[in-house]
Amino acid sequence: MKVDYKKLWIMLIEKGLTKAQLRELCHISPATLTKLNKNEVVSLEVIIRICLALNCEISDIVEIVRT
Q1: What are the backbone angles phi and psi of residue 42, rounded to the nearest 5°?
Q2: Which of 14, 52, 12 is nearest to 33 (CA)?
Q3: Which end of the chain has fewer CB within 10 Å, C or N?
């Protein structure tokens, strides 16, 4: 399964947030942020925390890549 977080990075730019600020806001570990940067699968709990912090839906920040 492959995922793409491009929408997340665009949203951060639109909201004027850095990745470091997102990490602090959502209490994400550096390792998890690295996984997000590499478009690797992270837990649903992390995705939910990001959605709550950014006031958005899951589909607003992640896409499933069909190969």
Answers
A1: -120, 170
A2: 12
A3: C
Residue with tokens 């690295």: 34
CB environment 15-51: b (16+ within 10 A), e (fewer)? eeeeeeebeeebebeeebbebbeeeeebeeebbebbb
Supply 28's token pair. 């994400």
- Over the stretch 1-41, which tens digit does the pLDDT of each residue have? 799 999 999 999 999 999 999 999 999 999 999 999 999 99
Strand-pair category, 63-65 with 2-4: antiparallel
- Provide long-range contacts, Cβ within 8 A and 24+ apart, for 15-24: 15/54, 22/50, 22/53
